[in-house]
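Now for one record.
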Amino acid sequence: MTLTLDLSPSEEKDLQTGAAHDGVPVGEYARNLFATALRQKTTAHRRAILEAEAAEAFAASGETEEDMEAYIQQAVREVRAELSARDAHP
């Protein structure tokens, strides 16, 4: 997919500076920034879904807050493992 972005002169300068700092072409630097932001957004979205599911299950279960915290922590570990596996095998 090809994207065209209208950047302000300041944004363009920041992009060029970051690319130069990392020693990569501007297009590659921009793609890496976008991919990182997309992963972070996807992770935040997945976490929100998991938290909503956990809250719903908690309300219906009659379990304690400690039980809910353990469930959330397990879900977070699972998402992190999934992301690590995906990053290791792009």
Summary: The mean pLDDT is 90. Helices lie at 9-22, 26-61, 65-88. The longest helix spans residues 26-61.
